[in-house]
Amino acid sequence: MPVDQDALDAVALSRAEYDLLVEQLGREPNEVELGMFGSLWSEHCGYKNSKPLLRLFPTGGDHVLTKIGAENAGAIDIGNGLCAVMKVESHNHPSAIEPFQGAATGVGGIVRDIFAMGAYPVAILDSLRFGPPDDPQNRYLFHGVVGGVGSYGNCLGIPNVGGEVVFSSAYNGNPLVNAMCLGIAETARLQSARATGIGNVMLLVGADTGRDGIHGASGLASRTDPEARFEEMRPAVQVGNPFLEKLLMEACFELASEHGDWIVGLQDLGAAGLTSSVVECCAKGHSGAVLELANVPRREHGMTPYEVMLSESQERMLVIAKADHVGDVKALFQHWELHCEPIGTVTAGNEVVLMDGGVEVGRVPVEIATEPPQYRREGVRPAELAELNAFNLAGLPDLDPAQATATLLRMLALPNISSRRAVYRTYDHQVLNNTVVSPGGDAGVVRVMGAEKGIALATDCSGRLCYLDPYAGAAAAVAEAARNVVCTGAVPVAVTDCLNFGNPEKLDVYYQLEQCVRGIAEACSVFGTPVVSGNVSLYNESAGRSIYPTPVIGMMGILDDVSKHLVAGFGPAGSPVYLLGAGLEQPAESLAGSEYLEAIHGKVAGLPKVDLQAEHRLQQLVLRAHGEGLLASAHDCSDGGLAVTVAESAILGGRGFEGSAALHGRLDAALFGEAQGRIVVSLLPDAFRQGGGAARLEDLARELGVPVTRLGVTSEGDAFTLGPISTSVTALGEAFETAI
Amino acid sequence: MRFAIIRFPGTWSDRDCYHALHTVLEQQADILWHRETDLSGYDAVVLPGGFSYGDYLRCGAIARFSPAMEAVMEFAAKGRPVIGICNGFQVLCESGLLPGALMRNDSLQFRCEWVHLRRGGGATPWADSIPQGTVLRVPISHGAGNYYADAPTLTQLEATNRVVFRYCDAAGNPTPAANPNGSLNNIAGIINARGNVLGMMPHPERASEQLTGGADGNRIWESFIRQGLAVFS
């Protein structure tokens, strides 16, 4: 079959890749085979641009139960015979085209990855980025995405316990929608996505297969499309049915947790649908399969084998059942009122053979399909960085003390700092009765039912910092995510990451990708938090401009006793308040990439710095102080700097604050600079414990080599003072609650 | 006490009700699939929250045709206690066991947050041990909790003391600001004429432990458990 450029464009393969494919196959692929190879060799499925870099991540550890990339999600042993299963995934391109369904099916997809492991999903987080909200198109995308995330998760009955909403013009026309899910499984009942045992049966369960989502993986997710094509591409976005997914989730969990001996594998149908799930299960099981496409239940008449194999219809799972338990498995799904049809058989050969009504229509060697070419490029540092990094921050006029109060109120009302309550109150964050720390703090905390333990979860990334210095920015994202988890009293244990970047074929974007991966790898090594799962989303650009490099870090931490968790709001009146980590006096350079610099001076500039060893010591200090019962609250000092952090703790705790520390040096840097590695804590007043908590904290800090600064004390009243700032907590709260 | 918790396709607070009743309050409880029609041996029926049948068509409109609902209707007709929470309240209204309907929230958005409820209204096993005027703190989680009934029905509900819970502020005042969804007269929960059937939008099963935010919801379950103990002992 002679292949023209249009046919290759449709499956996003280059001519060189096609030639390589023909050479490996020893023949030209037919239409359905070409569609399958195109999808499997896409960036989305095949990671052809990112795989060589991802090998840099630390991925092992005594508590890591899965090999990275080998399963639908990463599993971490949490003791008591239980494991946590987690992953984050992007649905950026579909959400740009159809925000509600794009985001909804993003949630649906990540949840399926978790229950495919045999785990019960217990928490969702959503990490979202949009262009500035004063633009109507961005508001449309924001409301659509938040609506979609809420509608799918609420219907499933999985609590949404955290995430981020960030606005920046870097995301105009290309919003980022990253969804993370955590599940809990009995370790002994973990499932694998593999097809083993000759003669075992592949069952397709859940929704019927329709024409929706064809080319989602190769088209939407693996190249850049002009916005002008969004209307015509809308059919490539799938439509979600969360009700069906709820039934599928319950049925699969019952199958895995009670009848795991009936099956050998469980796999979700996500990007590239039946193609990737069957081929990947065979790759993992070192097997092949014969599929009979006529048995695939369809939503529409007249679907071709090509459409059946590449449909991305949602809410479908592949069950590989032992031959003698097919009837049992079918009965279980029928109880849940779901379709369950045998569509294929596991074979010894290493090929997936497609039959349509008994006639062979395609034959795909598993090895070729799952080993796409890999590209390693020499990245080029973006040219504009030299000037941006060298920007003279000290040359900016300092903040006038008379303007300090007004500036804090203005900062609290910024779309990137203000309360996210308007978003998270539309998400069910309590269902399953495990939510111990709700959204609005540093990290969400869920109890592990049946154990004393809790799991803390946070997502973080400052795209601005990653833009100014991809290495430091990505390391800072890991550090902040770990800090957030530590602020609940949890020990950080593992990372899942979602790498959102522009077109990797552009060498400056490739540089960003490589440096960010190196930054993550270094930080994860220092914190002892292996990367256990993740996702790569490339080709995020709009009107020829790449998004900020945005490697979103999902961090998981463990609390041995969840009843002893920490919150972000200040403790009782009379609690001494301390800044832990880098001190009050900061150079102008600490304004690099800060919210203040962009909001007040309209600049994204400077050179961000991160000290991972200092960060690690800081986190150890908080965990040890908390372990000794010294702390009433802990709150990460990041976006908006110290003044915003102290104000948030006062608002969340409903306490006044009397600042007593003298401010020296630049006022803007002291109040709003974003020096990394800082946490604001309030100590339980001495009346609440034996002996002096403050003295003990200072001893611990000296031992660990962490600077500490006493900032002041909480009060019963409404007054709030910090340096030249003088206002009320009520006024701060009003500013904080009104923006989005 | 032995509770039957009915699970429709799409129900999700079945596990939470089981946790509150069985794990926290140490009662017997079974989760029954919606095809179950035998409720003998149960002291009370719980219709939990969730999105039965995806809330497609109209909340609760399809679940009310489930086989289990015929048995629940009979159970209620005998004067035996039934509680419908959130989606369960919507199913009770759709099935005619309670009057009125739950419309979309006036915000047109889903709302998940803690609210305050004031105990009022007449006798019901679900609230008899909660003194009049008591304020409970319990979460809501719904997109369609905006209670509506026509004027004669509403007048009759009020005249016969059938509004058991109203949204209120922390001090117990049923103000417009304390109303999270636009419900008429700040209605959060009502009973049938006999008092054995309670429907409420807030989730008492989510307020069962201090660890997860508060335990006021147990007052509702305990009211029935205590009353039942008095009857059966």
Could you please describe the fold and organization of this structure?
The complex is a heterodimer of chains A (740) and B (233). Chain A has a domain at 381-441 and 567-740: PurM-like C-terminal domain (Phosphoribosyl-aminoimidazole Synthetase, Chain A, domain 2). Chain A is built from 27 helices and 27 strands. Chain A is of the alpha+beta class and 740 residues long. Chain A has a seven-stranded mixed sheet. In chain A, helix 23 (612-627) runs antiparallel to helix 26 (693-704). Chain A is 36% helix and 23% strand. Chain A is globular and about 85 Å long. Chain A starts with a helix and ends with a helix. Chain B is an alpha/beta fold and 233 residues long. Chain B has a single domain (2-227), classed as 3-Layer(aba) Sandwich (Rossmann fold), CATH 3.40.50.880. In chain B, strands 2-1-3-4-11-10-9-6-7 form a nine-stranded mixed sheet, with helices on both faces. In chain B, helix 2 (67-77) links the parallel strand 3 and strand 4. The longest helix of chain B is centred in the C-terminal third of the chain and has 15 residues, at 218-232. Chain B is globular, with a radius of gyration of 16 Å. The termini of chain B are close together. Chains A and B meet through helix 8 and helix 11 of A and helix 1 and strand 6 of B.
